[in-house]
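Support request, please re-run this one:
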Amino acid sequence: MLPESIVKKVLELGLAKGADFSEVFVEESRLSSIGLMDKKVEEVTSGNSFGIGVRLLFGDEAVYGYTSDPGEDGLLKLTENLAASHKETRKEKHGGAPNPFRVETLEDRHTVRVAPESVPRGDRVELLRKLDGLTRKQGGDIIQVRASMNEKHRAVLIANSEGLWVEDSRQYARLSMAAVAEKGDGPQSAGESPGVLGGYEFFQEIDAERITEAVAQAALRMAGAGYIEGGLMPVVLGNGFGGVIFHEACGHPLETESIRKDSSPFAGKIGQAVAQPILTAIDDGTLGNHWGSLNVDDEGLPAQRTVLIENGILKNYMSDRLGAGQVGVPRTGSARRESYKYAPVSRMRNTYIDRGGDKFADMIASVDFGLYAKKMGGGSVDPATGEFNFAVQEGYAIRKGKIAEPVRGATLIGKGFEVLPLISMIGDDLELAAGMCGASSGWVPTTVGQPSLKIDRILVGGR
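Re-run finished. Output below.
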């Protein structure tokens, strides 16, 4: 992707200009997507990109720049400008040299069985039309259907002054389905967006009947729903995408990017109880072919399984090189970036609350009046405080221990570190769901997840 001789000169120059550590990140990517809206192909896009990022560390401070020019002169000039931009003047270390490169051999856990380029575009259109038709068969009140397929391949090279040289290939595939239904009181939508770190086989093996029925029926139920009366009440959170609340309200504050800035309610609490003993939470980059998985992170460290909370006790943070050094914790293979245009920071991978021993039916039966939030929608969170506000995409009232009528317009409001201790029941029905997470290093594929769980009390916003 870039000659070893040029990489070595860039790393060497960074050290010679006073940096304690230098790194080169090279990326070549291609992406394609095709979207269908109401039976018509709405959009077909494709593109390629190539670029190189250079990072220099001066103690606990980093400078980063990038270019799409692979020429030696341009890269050396970029490195020189980066070193000059560091606010603290350091003496040049004339003659400094990086360690000899050692090529890392990767264990590839994420097989691609059907190469996307081997499949004609017509097959993709045929699948999208099938999904559209199956969705509309669910009911005449479906007024709009959107379906899209997104594929991306990233080839990366990571080399640094410590002698690391590692190359990785990452192939992503994702399907997005959405339906809108209307029954006289405004349209209501529902959607599903499964994805994998894998090839076109994902689309060939997808259960089209299941996903279209789930999307259509959720939209139809919500279209005929009334509104819930808000207040403080028990909530049973559905499995799968219900984990987005833990991801946003607790996951981000457990990244060293927040911890090192002392902007997290979990700072300094390793070894302390932050939840009831029934709760264990994990961030795992090693799960085979899962959307948020990696062979290596974007600093070249092999992916790991990191237990964040074990039996209610805070055990670890998710860390990158810079954060691990500042906070004083081990690196966890969590350094991620959207592309060569971003410096890596600590980010989540496949983050979930682990399965427990309770039954979903027992959770519902334990609630006299409350909310069953089967599917979560979008929301917002302040990582510094953990305060969140999330919409419930598909919700139902719970009355006298039974799931009752569907309700729309509900929101869940609270603070992550305050909600964790209020989780009193955790189910055995763990599911994971694909998503995209945005932060200072751009948008990266992440997985959220959890079993069904019961929160004893949380503020529910109504209409």
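The CA atoms of residues 281 and 353 lie 4 Å apart. The mean pLDDT is 94.
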